[in-house]
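Please predict the structure of the following assembly.
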Amino acid sequence: MTDPTPDAAGELTLPVVGMTCASCVNRIERFLGRADGVRQASVNLATERATVHFDPTAIDRTGIVAAIEAAGYDVGRDPAAEGAAEAVAADDAHRAAERDELLLSALAALAIGLAMMAVMFWPGGPWPMADVNRWMLVPATIVQFVFGQRFLVAALRGARHGEANMNTLVAMGTLAAYGYSLVVTLTPDAVMAAGLGHETYFDSAAVIIGLVLFGRWLEARAKGQAVGAVKALLKLRPDTARVLRPGGEQEVPVDQVVAGDLVRVRPGDRVPVDGVVIDGASAVDESMLTGESLPVEKRVGDRAIGATVNTSGSFVMRAERVGRDTTLAQIVALVERAQGSKAPIQRVADRVTGWFVPAVIGVATLTFAAWLLLGPEPSLPFALSSAVAVLIIACPCAMGLATPTAIMVGTGKGAENGILIRDGAALEEARRVTDVVLDKTGTITRGQPSVIFVRPAPGIEERDLLRIAATAERGSEHPLAEAIVRHADGLGIEPGEAERFEAIAGRGVRAVVEGAEVLAGTAPFLGEAGIDIAPLEGAEVGTATPILLARDGRAIGVIGLADTVKPGAAEAVRRLREAGLQVWMVTGDRRATAEAIGSEVGIGPDQILAEVLPGEKAERVRRLQAGGAVVAMVGDGINDAPALAQADLGIAIGTGADVALEASDVTLVGDDLGAVPAAVRLSRATMRTIRQNLAWAFGYNVLLIPVAAGVLFPVAGLLLNPALAAGAMALSSVSVVANSLRLRTFRAA
Amino acid sequence: MNELPMQPTTTDPVCGMDVNVEIAHALGLTSEHDGTTYAFCGKGCKLEFDENPARFFEPGYQPRM
């Protein structure tokens, strides 16, 4: 690096790391000032820059850096984007390379196979067949043993364990075709003597391998798309964290953060792990995990969740849950488990495949024997080609794809929409559900109070009342107090500074606001203070909780607070009914309160289970089940855990942070009730796709096996060419994968 | 609701700033003097303190930034 040295005077600006206060500034300036050749040094704490004017003949950059380091500070590098997030990229690149290799092999095998076909079927071809066979021997061998190696190896491995699978079928079919052709090519005279022609099946074997490889490529590509949801979640995790260590902040890989470490989170950073804010304040965007669109305020004592994005403030947090314990890691694990799990319906498919393969080998052997004994001359080529056709057409790969692709795409789509489905069994249960029980607090309602009315006493302005209330309540952490402050803030009312703030638990607060003593709290609290609350009494408060206010011994108004219904709750209830489900509400509230909420969301009195103690919720679910209902229970996952477990399908709705993910079959990451009908619809769509896929694969195999065996030959002269059989088989795999990918168009809204 | 947030803070004897004790410990920004542990806002203050702790306990010393 060359320093800019205009004229005889040098000027240099360096980033300085580790300054915290003006003492630091003074110290660095003092050390720089003492250095020979420095004319003037000014250090800016805010920009973390030292600007030095110096005599370039007496000192250079190295000397200036040395002076700063002598003062105890480091000169930082200019912020450069240093290698990060490369692990995920490398993994992607690796998979992409594998996919590319599959595609290249497939295309090469197909090209060779098709070229051989063209040469063999050249109209009036000028070359003798025996010569053509010899030319084809080398490319055919390459396709069979290089591009087709994976099938042979897998078949051999399966055979050692006494297993027959799809690879067995491909290996047997192509080896039969290749082996027969090899004999024809190497011993043309003996073949002639046996009364057979010179036709070979090199081209068929190559095309089969090419097509099956192509199917595998499609499968790999579909997989790549289906696991996109997990990868998207993983990409949320930052690579490094700024850990406070003796000697300063260190940027370390996030895996090296341990519980108890203090981590600084700067504006724009992603929160690296789960922890508690111990210094500073900010607002954090948690939408990626919770769906909550507004940034969430974080102050000392609040939890910060890994992978969420810090906005404008800066804070220090103590790491509590790291590595596999973070909320993000748990969500990823849940999604992965669901995607890798097998629904009962897939186990059926696996059982079928288990006996299907030996049966097909049996049918192929029978076909071979029948053609050899009963078929027209030359019977051996007919017998061989028919047996090969049976082996290829029966390949159950489409069947093997039917369930996993649908579950992967379905659960992946769910995760994209904040619907985490535990496993394939949960999908099946969701399809059978007849009744949905919604918990009231936290599920239908927000679970936190909001201001629903403000009634100032005569002579008091509403805004003044709110300002006084917000000022007095600002120091309180009570949910009701916070709701009042939030409400005032929403109206653009700026609270002032309260003095001598005092909170009396369960009753209210006392503070000096604008020079006057203010009380805010329950009616008895004000009454005991000798305040005449008669002017405030008698007003209808309904289901609201009133907070009474007094200033200098005189009542000035009342603010009513209540838990309010979530926006979209009524719409969600309507959609659940549209899906043919009975909708219930369960709550510990008195019936009148419960019915008031019920009428807001469209749940009638006879579908409201009111005055139910928390421990009784599971019993209520059991009673519904005893009546023949398949019950989905929707709750906030913590106090509803027994009911969630009792239900056929437990759906936890919550913030994603503290929710008991393990207790439920389905977890809704956001708190939007609209995700419940979406989850039901997604499950139904996924199960429908699985059934369609199985029908495709089974029907296809069952229909074409007799044709491949030559059953239609005596009647219609119809035989399945091995190459056509392979093409049709690959198409069936493609249809199954494409049918699953249709789920990607599912819309949650 | 959270418990009341209690910030364990102390005063930097050099510059007078409020210092979060937990953070100062993590960063190694503490020094012992006469059996008491003092926490500092940053390296500058700690180094100043370590060079001559007695200076900051003189009656006339005014912590300033």
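The mean pLDDT of chain A is 79. Residues 106 and 214 of chain A are 5 Å apart (CA to CA).
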